[in-house]
Design brief:
TIM Barrel, 3-stranded parallel sheet, 10 helices, 15% strand, binds 3-phosphoglyceric acid
Length: 213
């Protein structure tokens, strides 16, 4: 899939909901109820970070659930792309963008939300055809004011800012012209996951899904 097609697909995914929960899941047994809790709360797009040993099993389980769109996050090398596809991921998310990752996604037809933090990184990706990017780590690199400023000279790049987003600042991001959605882990606090408190997670998802979009 060429970068233009990938970005088109990624934009469709980013427009499904205002927030993409960023998930760190250690136990594959809870993949199904966790995904169901989020989807029923109005957040169908899920990013499972490849930061736990079980992440690929978690993606496999979540990919079977109707109504969900499951991404593999924390893609840092070409092998992750292959693993994500084999697990059933619908898209990839990377904190930054290397040639190896971009080429692997292109060759293996996996849409990617590639990470960028500076104007040069954003311009390089845009030059390659990636018009939808992850702005990461959003709060640490200037947050809303940086993203707004970037939209001046680079109005044709759209973003999913991630990193430090919370219920308190998400709305401000979503009101920016160049923000399609935001990513964040605040919807799935580890305490609630450990307690299998699916009701509270659905409640957090519901609130997030209703932020202006
Ligand atoms: C990540 O990859 O960890 C995301 O950027 C999530 O960041 P957050 O925990 O600050 O929401």
């Amino acid at each position: 899939m060429d970068p233009y097609q990938a970005s088109k697909k990624t934009e469709e995914i980013c427009r499904l909901a205002p927030v993409i929960p960023v998930l760190v899941v250690h136990n594959p047994d809870i993949a199904k109820p966790l995904a169901e809790a989020l989807i029923s709360g109005g957040l169908p797009v899920l990013e499972v970070t490849l930061r736990t040993e079980s992440a690929l099993d978690v993606i496999s389980e979540m990919a079977k659930i109707p109504g969900g769109v499951v991404g593999a996050g924390t893609i840092t090398k070409a092998k992750d792309v292959k693993d994500a596809i084999n697990a059933g991921a619908n898209f990839a998310v990377s904190p930054g963008s290397t040639d190896n990752i971009l080429e692997a996604c292109e060759q293996q037809n996996l849409p990617i939300l590639p990470g960028a933090a500076t104007s040069s990184e954003i311009m390089r990706l845009f030059d390659l055809g990636y018009s939808v990017q992850k702005f990461f780590p959003a709060e640490a690199i200037g947050g809303q004011s940086a993203l707004k400023a970037i939209g001046g000279p680079l109005p044709n790049v759209k973003f999913c800012p991630t990193g430090g987003i919370t219920i308190d600042n998400a709305k401000g991001y979503l009101e920016l012209k160049n923000t399609l959605c935001v990513g964040g882990s605040w919807i799935t606090p580890q305490r609630l996951i450990e307690n299998k408190d699916w009701k509270s997670i659905t409640a957090l998802a519901k609130t997030a899904s209703k932020i202006v979009f």
